[in-house]
Amino acid sequence: MSQEQFDLVVIGGGPAGYTGAIRAAQLGLKVAVVEKDRALGGTCLNVGCIPSKALLDSSEHFSMAAHGEFAGHGLKLSKVELDLPTMMARKTAVVKELTDGIQFLFGKNKIEWVKGFGRVTGRNEVTVRGEAGERRLEARNTMIATGSVPIELPFLKFDGKRVLSSTEALSLPEVPKRLLVIGAGVIGLELGSVWARLGAKVTVLEYADQFLAAADQTAAKLLLRTLKKQGLDIRLGCKVGKADVSAKGVKLEYEDAAEKKTVEIEGDYVLVSAGRRAFCDELGVESVGVKVDDRGRVEIDDHFRTAVPNIYAVGDVVRGAMLAHKAEEEGVAVAEIIATGHGHVNYETVPWVIYTWPELAWVGQTEEQVKASGRKCKAGQFPFKANGRAKAMGFTDGVCKIVADAETDRVLGVHIVGPRASDMIAEAVIAMEFGASSEDIARSFHAHPTLSEIMREAALAVAGRARQM
Ligand code: NAI
Question: Which of 274, 293, 319 is the endpoint of a domain?
Fold first, then answer.
């Protein structure tokens, strides 16, 4: 067994790990990344963000074509057929290009990919079990970036055939006639949308009685109405308690809290999207003194340090939002802390996006949250239907809302439901990062005609002077 020395050994090649590794290499560190899967990129690139977006875009095109939405543009499509294998192959090709891209970047930055399952076997040692046997790496610093896995319900174990996690729901061999989804969270709504657009009857069972409780409720209610119009049967206040799985399908039993009755429902498949949990199984961290909290997350201080000073942890395996961009920034911060002594993440400006159609995106606090904190605020909003570009595109369902401090006018939160909200939210992130007021946004140029003007109009509405109504 050979032993090699590295300034930094990263365990996990997802967004937190590969981004942190590249930044560390740019800063002159000798870096190795341990990854057990066949491709780099982690959940995000292989079975998460990227393949789901490929399917969301493809299925949106299909749905628009199949439902005659191009007719108003003067496009007559006589026969629209779904070729699911081609759609899936395209998704796979998109993923491969991006995961190959990370491998290319590793080569360029002289980062070694050590293939296999890594364990922390000492304060300065990571042991990797791979096809070529066992290898010990001497690590001046270690970054744990092992990510998360889907949460399994005790009465409904994943079998990959009828009981699906997001991974299998991205690669179904057929369009289900009836798809049941447990959890109206990010994954349930995105993948539920994909299969509903392709023709499945999708029923989403959500435990909470409020739809997307963390989001601004004006935006959430508009999204709920629009998704229901698209055919998603979203049922709130449903506690699923029993399941019967056969080779042909699934039968669920749930308590309907509002109706106070037990309901049975059948589907060909069930997608369980009831959250994810930190993954540090068999990592061995506790043996060297690293602490893990009661939710299985690696405990860290404000500088991403575990209880062992030269072992850091970032991404889904630690506290906070399970988002690729949050993970990436943490990976970068750790690389900078190790190499320069300084690194920082501003959690006040982490954007959230749900890639349904329309999309929901927000950053900062909701009006409800600001008021609950005792702070006085003012809000302004503007509908997509009053925007010239949205009209030209033919996508007018949506609204943008800006919440600002009542006294200082500093922007505290921005909430958008509408087409391309995911891209529009970037402006709000920058504005908040620079401590902008709503007047700053209102007085900045926004090219005409663009969807971005909706943000300016919402900013003007904070002062009661929206123009384009
Ligand atoms: P989630 O936390 O977004 O939503 C889970 C939903 O399931 C919640 O609304 C919860 O109330 C409900 N639920 C939990 N147990 C239930 C039960 N027994 N019966 C009915 N409903 C139940 O989790 P999700 O969608 O699984 O996503 C996991 C993580 O992945 C999230 O933290 C999310 O941030 C991340 N993610 C982010 C994406 C994005 O940024 N667009 C895309 C996909 C995932």
Answer: 274
Q: Give yes or no: residues 356 and 412 share one domain.
A: yes
Structure letter (DSSP) for residue 151: P
Distances (CA, A) of 86 to 82, 171, 424: 9, 12, 31
Task: Domain count for the chain, please give it.
Answer: 3
Question: In ligand 1, which atom is closest to the CA atom of 185?
Answer: 4
Q: pLDDT digit of tens for each residue in the chain (469 aa)?
A: 457 899 999 999 999 999 999 999 999 999 999 999 999 999 999 999 999 999 999 999 999 999 999 999 999 998 999 999 999 999 999 999 999 999 999 999 999 999 999 999 999 999 999 998 999 999 999 999 999 999 999 999 999 999 999 999 999 999 999 999 999 999 999 999 999 999 999 999 999 999 999 999 999 999 999 999 999 999 999 999 999 999 999 999 999 999 999 999 999 999 999 999 999 999 999 999 999 999 999 999 999 999 999 999 999 999 999 999 999 999 999 999 999 999 999 999 999 999 999 999 999 999 999 999 999 999 999 999 999 999 999 999 999 999 999 999 999 999 999 999 999 999 999 999 999 999 999 999 999 999 999 999 999 999 999 876 5
Q: What is the CATH number of the domain that holds 239?
A: 3.50.50.60
Assess whether 340 and 362 both reside in one domain. Answer: no
Evaluate whether residue 43 is within a structural domain: yes
Give the up-direction half-sphere exposure of residue 212: CA atoms within 13 A in the CB hemisphere. Answer: 28
Ligand 1: which residue has its CA nearest to atom 26? 275
Q: How many CB atoms lie within 10 A of CB 85?
A: 9
Domain containing 426 — which CATH number?
3.30.390.30
Which residues are catalytically annotated?
448
Q: 141 and 21 in one domain?
A: yes
Count CB neighbours of 2 within 10 A.
Answer: 8
Q: How many CB atoms lie within 10 A of CB 5?
A: 12
Q: Which atom of ligand 1 is nearest to the CA of 205?
A: 20
Residue range of the domain that includes 317: 3-150+277-345
Please indicate, yes or no, whether residues 12 and 141 belong to a single structural domain of this protein: yes
Closest residue CA from atom 35 of ligand 1: 322
Q: Which residues line ligand 1 (CB under 6 A)?
A: 153, 182-188, 190, 205-208, 240, 273-276, 321-323, 353-355
Ligand 1 atom at minimal distance to the Cα of residue 238: 20
Length, in residues, of the chain: 469
Judge if 251 and 226 occupy the same domain: yes
Q: Name the domain boundary from 250, 274, 298.
A: 274
Measured CA to CA, the distance from residue 276 to residue 254 in angstroms comes to 21
